[in-house]
Amino acid sequence: MDYLLQVKIGALVGLLLLTLLFGFIPARLKWFRNSGGTESHRTVLSLISCFAGGVFLAACLLDIIPDYLSDINAELEAQGLEISFPLPEFIMAAGFFTVLILERIVLTCRQVDGVHEERAPLIQASGHGHGHGQATSHDLESSGHHIHVDFQAHSSFRSFMLFLSLSLHSVFEGLAIGLQNTESKVLEICIAILVHKSIIVFSLSMKLVQSAVPSFWVAAYIGVFAMMSPLGIAIGIGVVQAQLATGAFIQAILEGLAAGTFVYITFLEILPHELNSPEKQLLKVLFILLGFSIMAALTFLG
């Protein structure tokens, strides 16, 4: 086994272990799951969520979209394709509308189910029941979260799409490591991905926990997400060893669909959920800016 292959395998193992470590911190600590704690506890969780929103915003604008545009434009040049139509942006829009349509279908089905449930007799008389049909207008007005925001922003569907878009991007990041032909370049890219992915997976885990995803599925999501970059590295190693064509154009298209998905999740789910709440608006914006700035600094240094 040559030294370059050993370095790539070391990067594979390191990415896997570090991602699992940072992903399971919010998933395993009860503090992050305690939504009924004190006011200060809820404020801290909200600010952490805003920080995560800034991280995802930076990942979207400074990492995922630029990487995709660079890859697909390079591939279009390599194929000798000259078109006036903005194909890269159109592919991103296709990813955006795919998620939008799928989510509208899911929410429509849930609303239809809700209508059927309201027609059924309400057995529970307690005010702590989970049926939405029992809520009075006073209950809705005094709730800490707006009903519309809570129903959509915390949907398991959006959490899954966030996980899916990040996972696809992680595969492409790992592929970039696996396809390198020098040890220094492997280490350089690996260190950059390690730092930025640690923050990303922590933020992803936070979002899954806040979306009331069951513990088993949070663990499954984090476990699968942790394996995505190593999977990309393994694919890259296999391609290099076998000297096969990479199918770069198909890869670029998949990156574009993932980027469009990420745009939707970032701007229609993560940021609106916190900013629609009237409490501590300026402080929330500050923490969003802090998360964005840290990721921007890491991108600049990397």
UniProtKB/TrEMBL annotation:
Membrane topology note: Multi-pass membrane protein
Record's GO cellular component terms: plasma membrane
GO molecular function: zinc ion binding; zinc ion transmembrane transporter activity
Spans traversing the lipid bilayer: 6-24, 44-65, 85-102, 216-242, 248-270, 282-301
Domain of life: Eukaryota
Pfam families: Zip (PF02535)
Record's subcellular location: Membrane
Signal sequence segment: none
UniProt KW keywords: Membrane, Transmembrane, Transmembrane helix
Protein name: Solute carrier family 39 member 1
Annotated source species: Myripristis murdjan (pinecone soldierfish)
Gene name for this UniProt entry: slc39a1
